[in-house]
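Section handout 9: paired folding examples.
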Amino acid sequence: MGVKLSPAFLCTRPGAEFIQEYCDNWEMQEGTPSATAEMVCSWRALEATLPPRQRILSDPFARGFLGPVRRRLVDGAASLPAPARRALLRRLDQALQGAVTFVLARHRAIDDLILATPSDQVVFMGAGYDTRLARLCERLRQSVVFEVDHPDTARRKAELADTVYVDAELAPTVAVKIDFARDSIERRLCEAGLNPDGRTLWIWEGVSMYLPAQAVRDTLKLFARLSGSNSLAVCDVLSDPRRTGLLANTQSQFLEVAMEWIYSEPFLWHCPQDQIASFFATCGLTVLEDLGIDDLVGRYEKRLRGWLEAAPSLRLVISEPK
């Protein structure tokens, strides 16, 4: 019988004091749209405090989308000597079992894919506080760009945009505000001008694990249905570590417990690694690449391993319509 993790168990591990403060301060932001989007944005902001050669990803705009408490935490880290900043981020990553490094490497890999892939359209599904319209401005100007998100998150991002970007050049974007519980994504995208026969690059980052399996399947089918030839879809998948026993059982639960403890946003869907290709195939997509954390992070820096290593459960999948 497997052992069920509890939030109290997380608090006994290395780095727990820092993580507890991190989470307590976050709870002061109650009511802020998409807590997960701001969490991921804060990791990019922390990474931007490192010397350039030590970064996986450079996002000078991420800090501007943080709430006041989280911004103070990032500014406090930025005031430390460079070695201390690096040690702090590594400590955070190890306490969260590699999730921070995976997310940063995932973001960088998607950047690289966008830069290397010609497309008529780029669709960011659940765009959150994505800043690629500034960071990848020259490339994205060559495509029609859609940012799809819940109205609350989209509204907050729009309100902060002028202050965050100041004089930065921005690629034009079409904001598509969707209440995912009520609206038809397909209808709203087509109303916004999406060409279903165009060469489209779908970016679905950090969303699928929070949805029921049927919603994931419907969204992947939408990618296949609204894509012309040479289109691509990239998304991450929560999978099971390819190991058995107590350690594997603990790993498979860790991220779910952490997210429910910190943000009350439980994981609802995962797919065993050996079933990813077949799951995508039933949605009309052929998997081209299925990248685990070692492959992904190894592109950009040496992997540092945590005490439990939950992040092997996370994978980045690139697919194309059949």
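Moving on to protein 2 of 2.
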Amino acid sequence: MNKQEIISILNEFPYSRDEYWIITGSAMVLYGIREQTHDIDMGCTSKLADQLQADGYSYALTESGNRKFEIGDNIEVFENWIRGTIDVVDSFPVISIKGLVEMKHEIGRDKDKKDIALIKEYMSNKIELVDNILEPEDFVRLRVLTGFYNIPVEHARKALQNGLINVSVLLDGELIGMGRLVGDGAMYWYLQEIVVLPEYQGMGIGTMIVNHLVDYAKKNSATGEFTTIGGVSAKGKEGFYKKLGFKVIPNGIMKIIEMGGE
């Protein structure tokens, strides 16, 4: 079924939208990530599960002990199956993109892995990287939301002014991530505040930020044969930088770029 067919069925669903949310393939269709799905999967509260049971719908128990209902030929309802948060799409509650990715990882079938690739492609097409528009207030806000300590806005303003470049990640105009490059602008470059809001992590956005800043350093390096890019990795994030070709060193991370190649 396509998006319009899903909406038509949901409009006839006689239960409160406060008590359920759309998940898996049907969520992907509502977001526009896929064109079709076989049926409509929902998560629901225990309150709605109790109501479905009282209304005579049969159920089976999942491995977690929650109830799973089949309603007609098109709808399956899973009690308390949720990852991430809930967004609203075309007036219907839908699992967030991050939650959708986590759910697909949890199910783990080959088709779920393909769906994850589709979701990441969808995100990359909607994301815009824009240089040097980051406002000090937003810089501070994203730092705090991603676990960095708070700093005065005026300190942030000066830091942004003295940096070489900053990049903002926009999703439908909303700031969801950022990164900075500082250094001498010729030989040595340092990555700073590579951050993505928690609900959008795990979707390849951090990689986009780092690659964007590395490309900037390569294009503007004055060393001739190679240039050095360093930084400090947040604890537990070393593997992220290793995948991008950085070496973990005692006081941070480092990558030597050969000009004309890597």
